[in-house]
Specification:
2 domains; Immunoglobulin-like; 31% strand; 371 residues; alpha+beta; nine-stranded antiparallel β-sheet; five-stranded antiparallel β-sheet
Length: 371
């Protein structure tokens, strides 16, 4: 902000000097410099985009919407495709229901499963509602060395009872990692909702960018709508990653080796083993994720359902797989960024900024960057 203010003031100063030079050609012309621009105090106040309305009379989409039914299921070399059609009359509760959807399931790698649901009919008039360009946000694809017989620890299971739902299961343990069973898929032009059950006292991490405890908690809502508002606790900050890591702990039976989920893994004498998996929702529209005691609900204002499941089973394997397939590795830093920086929010004007630079020089303090 200080850099933009300094640039603006510099432009004004140049304009003022030009006006003075032009005016000096006329004997009776007078010139005065413009006042130095000062950043207004209101610039400190960012927009609060967290949900602040709790309407107990709001219609629950789960109560009034019909869900979908899957048909025309076709096996593909890497998964399956299917058609989804409304299972009843449209509810149109927060928009217009999309009658026909396409389901695509891909086993993209041995540790990654892709589940995508998009409208069947998309054209140039509404493509921006649903299609997120790969040029803007990278889209994970089937690994180059993958083949149709790859073995995956993730298994996709679907059902039409009573309406379309699906589950993702870790085959090595039989653990259900994600399941929409018991909920309805809601897909409208301005509102999408789907949910998954979660085990008791679950451990979710991620859903950045926000200042919050590392563990998200079981009664917490994250709103994805980036805002340039500094560093407030539990408020939206500069960006977001619609990704979470789910870590689960199990007690090991010493005799059989069987695993039993531990809702409270706090017994110091017990033997625990942990399994982690990741879930990434590739969607750039405004979203909110409701983490409730026994389930998680995703809501978005548009886009598509573009889910990626990472098997892990360790945290570092999930993170590396997410980086390599979805967001890329951190960029190599430019050499100058390793120098001495001075940064502060709230410089009033360019002359104050110059004073800071001059004082660094005066006292012999190294300084390569100021911003």
């Amino acid at each position: 902000m200080a850099g933009r203010a300094a640039f603006a003031v510099g432009s004004l100063l140049c304009a003022s000097v030009f006006a003075q030079s032009s005016a000096s050609s006329s004997a009776d012309a007078t010139t005065s410099y413009r006042a130095i621009f000062t950043v207004p105090a209101s610039a400190q106040n960012g927009l609060n985009v967290l949900p602040n309305i709790n309407d107990p009379e709001a219609v629950s989409a789960q109560d009034v919407c019909p869900g979908y039914t899957a048909s025309n299921v076709v096996r593909t070399p890497y998964g399956l495709t299917a058609d989804l059609r409304l299972a009843g009359s449209a509810c149109n509760v927060y928009g217009t229901d999309v009658d026909a959807l396409n389901l695509t399931v891909e086993y993209q790698a041995s540790d990654r499963l892709h589940v995508e649901i998009t409208p069947t009919y998309v054209d140039s008039s509404n493509s921006s509602w649903y299609i997120l360009p790969e040029a803007l946000v990278q889209k994970p694809t089937i690994d180059a060395d993958a083949n149709s017989t790859l073995e995956s620890d993730l298994n996709f299971v679907w059902s039409n009872t009573p309406t379309f739902s699906f589950s993702v299961i870790r085959q090595s343990t039989g653990d259900v990692l994600f399941s929409t069973t018991g909920t309805k898929l809601v897909y409208e032009n301005q509102f999408i909702e789907f949910g998954s059950s979660l085990p008791e006292n679950y451990n979710l991490y991620g859903m950045g960018e926000t200042i919050h405890g590392l563990r998200m908690g079981n009664n917490f809502t994250r709103t994805f709508y980036a805002a340039d508002v500094g560093d407030p606790i539990d408020y939206n900050i500069y960006g977001d990653h619609s990704f979470y890591l789910d870590t689960r702990y199990y007690e090991v039976d010493e005799t059989t080796g069987n695993l039993t989920y531990a809702a409270n893994a706090t017994n110091v004498t017990a033997q625990y083993v942990s399994y982690s998996h990741g879930v990434y929702m590739r969607n750039a529209h405004g979203q909110e994720v409701l983490m409730q005691p026994s389930n998680i609900t995703w809501r978005t204002l548009g886009g598509s359902i573009d889910l990626y499941f990472y098997a892990g089973p360790s945290q570092d394997k999930v993170t590396k797989a997410y980086q390599n397939s979805a967001i890329g590795l951190p960029a190599m830093q430019q050499y100058f960024t390793f120098g001495f920086h001075q940064c502060r929010w709230g410089y009033s004007n360019w002359s104050e900024l110059q004073d800071v630079v001059d004082n660094f020089s005066k006292f012999g303090i190294p300084l390569e960057n100021i911003w």
